[in-house]
């Protein structure tokens, strides 16, 4: 049994990026934990404090559907670049100390959203391979409506090398996204039930299976995802 941690910037990123893989980990008896670094709401022009708690309740329900536990870092939404990187790293280090993950999922660093890039950097910093520290597998995922919208910017493009067949878990991935009533959008928006299925079919065709999630391999440790 492996210990698995997904470190994401915002509520729903964990579903969009690796919800299928997380559900499959839970199915095989792995411990699955999700750390959502941002509070996810306060960058909007209009919101109430009750909206933040409702969003966190949605994250808890999505985690339940996937078979995971979730915690929150409370960082300001879409303003991670205003926070000292060390402070973000310390949040990740604290959770990693509690979870002791063998496998870590996080954002692709070239995403359009600034919080995603900070999150990847914080994960790589917190889990740098120091003497005496365990070696971990670290995988980066795309986030629909962010990774693909970077277009031809100077940021590195998402180039996956690892594919996980998620056909058996796709209904739960979609159900977990639908738990986020305030975040989901109608098709053809990529952050929609239809968008998730299209992306899964796309990566499935790339990997020669029906439906898949795709990951960039940032580091390989003793434990492999599947």
By secondary-structure content and strand pairing, the structural class works out as alpha/beta
Quick one: overall form?
globular
List SSEs in N-to-C order.
Answer: EHEHEHEHEEHHE
Broad CATH class: Alpha Beta
State the CATH architecture. 3-Layer(aba) Sandwich
Mean pLDDT metric: 93
Q: How many individual β-strands?
A: 7
Task: Work out the strand percent.
Answer: 15-25%
Q: Which range best describes the helical content: under 10%, 10-25%, 25-40%, 40-55%, 55-70% or over 70%?
A: 25-40%
| Biggest β-sheet description | 7 strands, mixed
Question: Counting H and I runs of at least 4 residues, what is the number of helices?
Answer: 6
What can you see in these coordinates?
- The protein has 226 residues and is α/β, with parallel strands linked by helices.
- It has helices spanning 13-27, 49-66, 85-99, 114-126, 170-178, 193-207, and strands at residues 3-8, 31-38, 69-75, 103-107, 137-141, 162-165, 212-219.
- The protein has one domain: LmbE-like (Rossmann fold), CATH 3.40.50.
- It has six helices and seven strands.
- Helix 4 links the parallel strand 4 (103-107) and strand 5 (137-141).
- The chain is globular, with a radius of gyration of 16 Å.
């Amino acid at each position: 049994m492996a210990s698995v941690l997904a470190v994401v910037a915002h509520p729903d990123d964990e579903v969009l990026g690796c919800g299928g893989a997380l559900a499959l980990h839970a199915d095989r008896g792995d411990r699955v934990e999700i750390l959502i670094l941002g509070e996810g709401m306060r960058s909007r022009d209009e919101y109430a404090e009750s909206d933040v708690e409702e969003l966190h309740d949605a994250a808890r329900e999505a985690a339940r559907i996937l078979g995971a536990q979730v915690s929150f870092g409370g960082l300001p939404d879409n303003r991670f670049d205003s926070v000292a990187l060390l402070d973000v790293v310390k949040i990740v280090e604290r959770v990693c100390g509690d979870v002791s993950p063998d496998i870590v999922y996080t954002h692709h660093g070239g995403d359009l959203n600034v919080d995603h890039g900070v999150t990847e950097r914080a994960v790589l910093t917190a889990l740098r391979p120091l003497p005496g520290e365990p070696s971990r597998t670290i995988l980066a995922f795309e986030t629909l409506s962010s990774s693909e919208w970077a277009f031809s910017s100077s940021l590195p493009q998402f180039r996956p090398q690892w594919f996980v067949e998620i056909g058996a878990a796709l209904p739960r991935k979609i159900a977990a996204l639908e738990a986020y009533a305030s975040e989901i959008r109608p098709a053809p928006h990529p952050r929609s039930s239809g968008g998730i299925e299209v992306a899964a079919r796309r990566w499935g065709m790339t990997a020669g299976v029906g439906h898949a999630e795709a990951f960039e391999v940032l580091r390989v440790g003793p434990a492999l995802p599947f």
